[in-house]
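call fold(seq) -> tokens
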Amino acid sequence: MKKKIYRMAVFLALVVCLEGCMSRERYMLNWFRTEQESSDKRMEEIIEIFEEKDAGKLKEMFSKKAVLETEDLDEQIESLIECYSGDLVEFDGGCDSASQNRHGKKKLNIFGKYKVITTEEEYRIFFSEWVKEYEEPEKIGIYNIGIVKEEVWEQEDFMWDNEKMGAFVYVE
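ret:
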């Protein structure tokens, strides 16, 4: 009887130790993968909205703060959606991020930048989004997004203005 209890205790201790190590490994893998995967997923959602021409869905992605503080956001979003044409062929890009962790409280800001090719045009699209924000949760969501046709993006003097909140279409 004592041997059974001892074996069971050793088995349970082993399971707990291994699960703890595996959880840590999974946690670390997710920490490093999540930002790019999150950015790619958001870009897929944005493209889907552009193709559906659904301004309401795009506005729902914006943070409460951006919605409240951006003048003419509805018109900006409509212009953004009108600029996009065609069906997605492919997209490629990446993201930069800024993060902070204070005693388990996290902030994460991602900046997605993508080349999008449709059946009709090539674009560059960027977005900035607070994914986590413990001090000001009303910031969570997209706070700016821009689209530009490839030929404008390639101009030597072109620069994104990603400091302002809103939805931007860049023209010549």
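The longest helix spans residues 2-52.
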